[in-house]
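cron nightly-structures :: item 1 of 1
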Amino acid sequence: MLTAKQKRKTQFFKVLLWGILVVALYVGLYLGETPLIHWTAQGHWTFIGPIAIAFLVSFVHGHFTGEFWDVLGIKPKLSGGKK
C-alpha cells in the first residue's frame, strides 16, 4: 500500500508525464502544420489524419487535466441526480 507521500509523488509524475505529452503534441502540430495541410489536401482518405490527431490531443489533454485537478485535490460534486 502506498503512503500518502508516495501517492502524491506518483500523482505529480503522472501530471508531469501527461503535461509533457500535451506540450509535445502542440509543438508537433505547430511545427508540422504545413506538411499536414499539404498531406490532407491530396484527397482520398487523408482527411482522417487531422481527425485522428484531434482525438489524440483531446485524449491526452483530458488525462492531463484530470490528473492536474486530482493533484490539487479538487473533485467534482456528486449530486446523485435528485433534487
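cron nightly-structures :: done
The chain has a mean pLDDT of 92.
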